[in-house]
Amino acid sequence: MSVQKPSIPQGTRDFGPAVVARRNYIFGVIRRVFEKFGYAPLETPTMENLSVLTGKYGEEGDQLLFKVLNSGDFLNKKNAAVTAEDLEAGSRKVLPKIAEKGLRYDLTVPFARYVVMNRGTLTFPFKRYQIQPVWRADRPQRGRYREFYQCDADVVGTDSLLCEAEIVLMMSEVLNTLGLTEHTIKINHRRVLGAFYQALGGEGTEVDLFTAIDKLDKIGQDGVTRELLERGFSEASVARLFELLSVQGSFAEKLQQLQSAFAAAQVPTEADGSYKGLQELGRVQQLLQDFGFTHFDHLEFDPTLARGLSYYTGCIFEIKINNVNMGSVSGGGRYDNLTGAFGLPGVSGVGFSFGVDRLYDCLEELNLFPEAVATTTRCLLASFDLENSRQLLPILRQLREAGVAAELYPDEAKLGKQFKYADAKGIPYVLLQGPEEQAASQFKLKELSTGQEQLLGWNAVLDALTK
RNA sequence: GUAGAUAUAGCUCAGCUGGUUAGAGCGUCGGAUUGUGAUUCCGAAGGUCGUGGGUUCGAGCCCCAUUAUUUACCCCA
User: Fold this and answer.
1) Is CB count within 10 Å lower at the N or C end of chain A?
2) Taking the model in full, what pTM does it have?
């Protein structure tokens, strides 16, 4: 039998020790911010029933679900789960009979399911964060993986715009703590997009309009124009749209300009004469100001921001790192009827998600990972021979009892090899006690970064390693 | 699903219009140094050139197929 080359599935990765340490650093920053804002941790199963997942992400999303094959021989003649007629009818008919579970596609839908299942025991408003991997059967490419981590924070059970404001605060704090200062937090409102659609007089479909608008910064005005004309919008409407989108200036100025533009286009208002989308965006900005938010230069009202997920109904968010060519590292928004699909209507939720894998790629490209964090071992005990190793074992124990991460080189090897090992692993100290030191009842401690060696008594060694 | 690119040592890559025994850097291992890493010097191991077929006196190089990887579109974190 020939030896096969090992491999891992497309779009998945191994994470070596150094990478895990740096990923944990990112997780730690995000977790601390979430907890500081009062969010509690939640974990849900890797697998959900397909009935929970399907139909929540649109037709494309359903195709990107990883399905888990049922156990058992479903083609067995007796008690066959799949009949000849099923096979005749095609995969649509066969699939539900051979797969009833799937890997989670995001963290929001499992969260909604959890809320509905536990509604009796939860205290509302319920704030939860969740840091777990999700899977998508996508074509991998730059910044896109088939298995990746999301870090979600969501609130359900309140309409308060304070939640939206706090999302901006959390986004800003995480990015600044990580050193990703060249970022833009983009915010828009689904009802603003809706108003655009109304201002154009009801041609085409909302979805076509929104997905086209969303691409503006990517394919430019010409590209968007071409796409809209193909989708049945008139040239006059497209011209009108770009007039509306051309608003300039500060957050407040853009709101003001759109207010007048919508009125001029006779877009219907709420009973109180306002446009809800614009009004809510204004309130969020006001709340941030009252809180003392200081990074308004990184917050942008972007009327072209659309985002694909169809369930957003209020504010929508997205983060772009400006000095790295990478898709968005975070996104989110409000959904008025999050739990409706599971039989609990009228519960509003708002939340957002960080993509750790993309954040990692950004930090690496910009060289923003702090030094250190690499190895856990602080001190390597080097030995001269087996007898010496035996004598070092109690020393090893005492170091560990003192809380010093320490290891003894397990094989009989030359000192050079042992030092090389420490160096390669990033271990800062090497401790040894050969015949010379033993005679003097002392130890030799070498700090690899400086190359300095000291002859020390046991207490001094402990001092040096625990300080 | 659509389109392009790539595949040569553990890693990153050279390899001329097709011509002897396929190279470099890094890494690994050994030695210079049987009590000292990162630095220096010397040496060694390591390749069915992704796989299968074809053209040719001769193929890492040309042609066809196939697989894998990767980039872009769609969509998204």
Assistant:
1) N
2) 0.89
